Amino acid sequence: MSDEARDPIRQLESFTTEGLAVTPLDPAEVRRRGDRRRTRRRAAYLSVAAAAAVAVAVPLALTTGGGDDTPTLSAPTVITYPHGGVEVRSAADTSKLEGTTREFRSFIAGVWQDDAGQGCADATVTVEKYSSAGYALGAVGGCGGYVALWVGQDGHWKEALGTQDEWRCGDLSRFDVPSSFAGDCYGPTALFGPTDDAGLRLGMTADDVVAAGGTVVGPAGACQGVNPAGIKPPKDATLGYLSAIPGKGVVALFAEKDQVTPEGIGRDATRADVEKAYPNGHLDPMHGAWIVPIDDHSHYRFDLDHGSVRLVSLEAEGTQDCYE
Amino acid sequence: MHEAEFDDFYTSSFTRITGQLYAMIGDRDEAQECVQEAFVRAWAHRRRLDRAEHPEAWVRTTAYRLAVSRWRRRTLARRPADRAVSPAVRTEAPDETRVALVTALRRLPEPQRRAIVLHHLCDLPVHAVAREVGVPEGTVKARLARGRTALAALLSPTDPTDPGAQHV
User: Fold this and answer.
1) Does residue B36 form part of some domain?
2) Which 3-state string (H, E, C) describes A74-107?
3) 8 Å CB contact of B76 and A225
């Protein structure tokens, strides 16, 4: 062997892919696939708009209570404003929001003020639906435009969610807003963690897993795969790992696409969502993952891919023999 | 990024990034699949790509993280015993030197391997490696030093190490 061949750095620097049968797709096909994904996202947004348009056509009866400027609602307690909702183009327009509380009208005036304050020439806030249970649906449209879900408790209102896409079911669950009010939602609704995944827990033995209705995959004596009952694992994948190290038990569990944490975080949540839901977490820069301590023995791990969650895991602390 | 710009970017960099990812994860087919998917995402998020200072690093990082994610959940029966990020090798290149090098790289700890590949194969300066990996420059330098030493030992003709052994 020559000196050059023995020098690992020189070998590495002369490493090429010449001779490798790399067969990429045609560039036009790559763009077509990328466009198809953009189209799906846009379709999801339009379906929200269509759902809102149908909802506002529902008539509603209101009665006004004597003495108080807040009308008393007859049934139902949900107000759906006709003609696409009440458009607020000035603070004074909030008086058109019949049936809402003074605090809500004040809040909406503030939302409009913020929109106008950004230099939006056409600052508009549209209130489409309002529920006396403490949530409302509308749109903020001056700069860019998005649909918004506002929630109020004890007279204090805030913007809970805003999107140009469809609602995520986990987000609606997090704010206790029914999809019958907010419109169609997509994605996970089943809970994942912090201590339980469809009956499986970190630290369980193989016998515990089976007793909980789960399955153990692979030969004993080495790290094995585990799958909870009732959840079909993806092809060539497992939904958890059982360590062969004595006393370790189940060391990792992975969420499926229909699962979210109690804080509403599942796959496709944004990094901002994760950081907001788990401000006590920290970034593992090596793996691009947001790590959130649960207790002394376990943590959530949210693997990120350029701003979106790609994989949600429950992991045991300490060394293990399954990966990494 | 317009269609023509994207096509040029894709055509000129696909093979290079695939080779880089191949060196990082040790599986050419997996590398190609992940790089392909990363480019589809790049076009779908081209506005984000426009804002990226280094589009090639964006694609490489996306592809690497895809590979890591796929590997973590892969059933054990389809994985080697190696604890590093290296899916089962289905196809190896015929070049002996390259095979030996990739095999040696796969036996390095993941952080060292990634630093070595980014610095010596991708030709990135230390500060750029640090930015892409997300660690301080000093950490990168330490990983490079340890990785080079380990790689030299692994490629030594007198290396007594069992080919199946791990360096973690």
Assistant:
1) yes
2) CCCCEEECCCCCEEECCHHHHHHCCCCCHHHHHH
3) yes
| Alpha-carbon distances of A45 from A204, A272, B150, rounded to whole Å | 42, 20, 52
- Residues on chain A touching B33 (C-beta within 8 angstroms): none
Residue B62 lies in a domain: yes
- pLDDT given for residue A324 in this prediction: 60
Contact A24 B42 (CB under 8 A): no
Neighbours of B39 (CB within 10 A): 26
Residue B30, domain extent:
3-155
Average pLDDT rounded to a whole number, residues B149-155:
84
Domain assignment present for residue A18? The answer is: no
Give the C-alpha separation, B46 to B26, whole Å. Answer: 29
> Any chain A CB within 8 A of the CB of B88?
no
Question: What would the mean pLDDT of A175-199 be, rounded to a whole number?
Answer: 77
Is residue A266 located within the same domain as residue A229?
yes
A176 and A42, same domain (yes or no): yes
Q: Is B126 inside any structural domain?
A: yes
Question: What residue type is A220 in one-letter code?
Answer: A
**Which residues 29-48 of B have a C-beta within 8 angstroms of A?**
32, 35-36, 39-46, 48
What is the CATH number for A216? 2.60.460
Residues A211 and A102 in one domain: no
Quote the pLDDT of residue A22. 65
Would the pLDDT of B26 be above 70? yes
pLDDT average, residue stretch B153-166:
57
Confidence band (pLDDT; 50, 70, 90) for A37? low
Alpha helix stretches (DSSP H) within chain B: 3-25, 28-44, 46-51, 55-73, 96-106, 110-116, 126-133, 137-155
Q: Which residue of B has its CA nearest to A22?
A: B15
Domain count, chain B: 1
Asked whether residue A47 falls in the same domain as residue A169, the answer is yes
Amino acid at B130: A
Domain final position from A137, A154, A186: A186
